[in-house]
Structure formats: C-alpha cells, structure tokens
Design a protein that fits this description.
The chain is of the alpha+beta class and about 500 residues long. The chain is built from 10 helices and 7 strands. The strands form 2 sheets. Strands 2-4-5-7-6 form a 5-stranded mixed beta sheet. The protein has a two-stranded antiparallel sheet with strand order 1-3. Its EC number is 2.7.13.3.
C-alpha cells in the first residue's frame, strides 16, 4: 500500500521529501558542528589565553626567586642596601605573578594548580623566614649555607611542579582541541556525503522520472509527427509526465479525427476544383467563342445593314411625298431602325474588342487626356461646364481610357436636367497603389434601386424616345475599368445628379 502511494507521488513532492530529509540531516550536522566549534574555541582559548600566559608567568616567577636569592647573597656579603634591591623587587614581582596565575586559574578552578600556588607561597615564605629575613635583620639565628640552599631548592621544586601542572593543563587542552578538530573534519565529511548522496538521488530521480520518460515521449511524438497518427502515446514517468502524455495523446486523437475530416474535405475540394477547372475552361472557351461570334456577327452584319440603310435612305429621298403619308412613315421607321441597328452593331463591336486588341499600358496624364476628351464633346453642349483640378498620371491604354471618359462625360451631358446648364467635375484621390477617379454631374441622377443595373449591357433606365442610345455605354466603361484591374461603383450618397467612382493603377513617379 505504501509503495503504491509512493508511486503516485509527484516529482515535486518527491524532491521536496528528499530535500526535507537532507535538510534535517544537514541541520543535525550543523548543530553538532556548532557545539564542537564552541568546545574547540574554548580549548583554544585555554591554550592561547590561559596556559600560555601562565607558563610565561611561571618562568618569570622562577626569575623573581633567583633575583631574591641573589639579592640576599649580595647583601650578606656587602651589607649594602643597594645589593638588597633585587630581593625587594623580586618579592614584589613574585606577588604580582602569583596573583596573575591565580586570576587565570580562577576561570578553570583546577585544584592541582591552586595547590601548587599555595605550596609555592608556603615554601617561599619559609625560605624568607628562615633564610632571607635573618640575613637582612642580622638578629635571628644564623642558618648555614647548606640549609639555605636546601630551602631555596624547595622553592625551585615548588615552581617546577607549578610549571609541570600548567604544562599538563596545556597538553590536555591541545589534545581536546585536536579531538574537536577531528570531529569537525568528520562532520564536514558527513555533510559532503549528505550533499553527494542527495545529488546522486536527485540525478537518479531526474533520470528515472524525467529524462528517460521525456526521451521516450519525444520519440513517440516524432513517430506520430512522421505520420503514425494511430500510435497511442503513453509515459511511465512521474504523474506530471503521465498527465502530459495523456494530454498529448488526446491532442493526437483530435488531430487524427480532424485529419480524417481534412482528407475527406480535401478529396471533395479536389473533386470540386476539377469540376470548377472544367467549368472554367468551358466558360473560357464559351466566352472566347461568344466574343468571336459577336465580332464576326457584328462585322458580317455591317455589309447587308449598310445596303438596307442605303436603299431605305434612297427610297426616302426619291419617293418622299410621292406616296401616301403612311408609306413615308414606314420608310422613316425603316431608316431609323437601320440607323439604330448600325449604332448597336458598332457599340457591340467596340465592346467585344476591349482586351482583344491592345496597344500596351503606358503612362497617361489624365489632365492632358481630358483636354482632348473635352474637345471631342464640345459639339454636344456648348454651354456645358466641364472642369477638373490637378489630376494624376495612371497606367493604361490611352484609346480605352479616352473611350471611358467620353462615355461617362457624354452620359452627364445627355442626362441633363431641362433648362439647367450641365456641370461636370472630375476629381481624384489616392487609394493605395491606385487612383480613385470621380465623375460627378448635376443631371437627373440615378435612383439607388438601379445601382446594380446601370452597368449591365443593353440595360436602359429610360425610354428610347426620351434619351437616345443603345444602353451599352456604361457596360463598356465597366469592362474597360476591369480590364485595367480596377473597380467601378455608383456613389449612393450623392444628393444631386450622379456620381460614379472607379479606380485605375497609379503610374510610377517620374525620376
């Protein structure tokens, strides 16, 4: 049960547990190191700040006793007070040094050194009482030299014992410091071992739960990416990677399902494309045949129509007034029908030639071209006001664009309001890589419901008796604009007259 629960642990939880155990171990090692370091510092303090000064004081104490003996000997021989000064100075130094040693030993309270200090004081006092003071005062019993030497040797022995005990204390502190140093080294080795063990376990966890499962998962993903969309993606790593593998496999299933739909849609699209290509090819061939038919039909109709028109006009000239009024009316109908048929055939022929007979695109200055168009339309209405501002240069075929403006401005002159002089304005504005051209007039205008019909071939919005024409002019304009890669539309926001916009490709700037 516990193994199963451990298997369900996430990688984060496992790493956290590992670091928690390692942290506790290192914390224990740290506490032990702190205690050991405190002991080591205490022992080093004993060596450097206590036993060292005590040993120095012991050496100086030995010298102080020698000074006392030397002073007594000199005074005994010379009875000079000056020779007694080393003795007196030695006594003062002795008391100071013994006091210093007592202060240093007070923090440790070592019984052996305290006993040594007591013994030194007792032996030194006995020497001074038995030897030094009788010599100084000269009143006590005289002690022979051998007895005085024995008393001073006892002083030396007591000082030597004090030094020996101080040395023992120092050696014990040195040994203890060495032991604490060894313990610190062991603790450092233990801490390094814990770190190495944690690193090894971390590498093992990463390799078993991350590296190898990720490598295996990447290999499975590569196989799926290579086209094996039916291969199930699994992972045996950490719960996070197993969850990731499940998500990736879900994505694979969705991709596989969508791929099936895409393949089916592609098959349908390819089938539809083939049908469209066949229809387009058929439509192209049909349009080509229709254009050829329109051109040949209109061209072949010219000759018999000219004969019909010529003989009708001849009948009208020769027999006008010689027949009854109805006959004259019939002949007039025939002449008018022949004329309209002639114009219709000519317009149809012009419409079919757009795009078939080309002179190549070139730079055209619209301002210069409109001057020529105005000259051509001058006879249509002498009172017309045709104007334009600064117009740009475009790329196109000049004959076709001339026809375009002749038709547009001609319509503005034709569909004028009664008793109102026609006003036509041509303006332009930039529209990306094209120029948007506007032709606007103050005529009768075009109703919004006819906006989609005005550009249809042979579409008329007014009776033939009201306005002449074949109804093909705006269809020719639309075909010319589309041939130049533009578009044409009716401005429905115009409040007076008609306003037509169309686009033409902009010419490159002159160097």
């Amino acid at each position: 049960m516990k193994v199963l629960e451990l298997h369900r642990w996430t990688l984060r939880r496992r790493v956290a547990g590992l670091f928690a155990v390692a942290g506790l171990a290192i914390a224990g090692i740290g506490v032990s190191a702190a205690i050991t370091t405190a002991d080591s510092n205490r022992h080093l303090d004993t060596i450097l700040n206590k036993t060292g000064p005590m040993r120095v004081a012991g050496q100086e104490l030995y010298s102080a006793f020698l000074d006392q003996e030397t002073g007594i000997r000199g005074y005994a021989l010379s009875r000079s007070a000056k020779n007694l000064e080393p003795y007196q100075q030695g006594v003062v130094t002795e008391e100071k040094l013994l006091g210093d040693i007592e202060k240093l030993n007070a923090k440790h309270g070592l019984p052996s050194i305290a006993a040594d200090l007591t013994r030194v004081r007792q032996v030194a006092q006995r020497w001074r009482t038995d030897v030094a003071e009788p010599v100084i005062t000269g009143t006590g019993p005289q002690v022979d030299e051998a007895a005085g030497t024995a008393r001073f040797d006892a002083v030396r022995a007591s000082v030597d014992q004090l030094q020996a005990d101080i040395l023992v204390l120092r050696n014990e502190a040195v040994d203890a410091a060495r032991r604490t140093g060894s313990v610190l080294v062991g603790l450092e080795i233990g801490a390094a071992g814990v770190v190495l063990l944690v690193g090894a376990l971390m590498m093992f966890l990463l390799d078993r739960l991350v590296t190898r499962p990720v490598t295996d998962l990447a290999e499975q993903v590569r196989r799926v990416a290579a086209g094996d969309y039916e291969r199930q993606i699994t992972s045996g790593g950490s719960p996070e990677l197993r969850s990731l593998a499940a998500d990736v496999d879900g994505m694979r299933r969705r991709i596989a399902d969508e791929l099936q739909e895409v393949r089916a849609a592609r098959a349908l699209a390819e089938s539809a494309t083939e049908r469209l290509e066949a229809k387009a090819e058929e439509l192209t061939r049909s349009n080509r045949d229709l254009e050829q038919f329109a051109y040949v039909a209109s061209h072949d109709l010219q000759e018999p129509l000219r004969k019909v028109a010529s003989f009708c006009q001849l009948l009208q000239r020769r027999y006008a007034g010689q027949l009854d009024a109805r006959a004259d009316q019939y002949i007039g109908f025939a002449v008018d029908g022949a004329d309209r048929m002639q114009r219709l055939i000519n317009d149809l022929l012009a419409f079919s030639r757009i795009g078939r007979i080309t002179t190549g695109f070139k730079r055209i200055e619209l301002g210069r071209m409109l001057t020529e168009v105005g000259s051509q339309l001058e006879h249509r209405s002498a009172e017309a006001d045709i104007g334009w501002g600064e117009l740009p240069a475009v790329e196109g075929e000049e004959p076709l664009l001339t026809t375009l403006f002749v038709n547009l401005i001609g319509n503005s002159l034709k569909f004028r309001r009664p008793d109102v002089p026609p006003v036509v304005r041509v303006t332009a504005r930039r529209d990306g890589e094209q120029w948007a051209i506007n032709v606007r007039d103050n005529g009768i205008g075009i109703e919004k419901e006819f906006a989609d019909k005005v550009f249809v071939i042979f579409q008329r919005l007014h009776p033939r008796e009201a306005y002449e024409g074949t109804g093909i002019g705006l269809a020719i304009v639309k075909k010319i604009v589309e041939y130049h890669g533009g578009r044409i539309w009716l401005d429905l926001d115009a409040t007076e007259g008609s306003s037509i916009w169309f686009t033409l490709p902009a010419a490159e700037e002159s160097p």
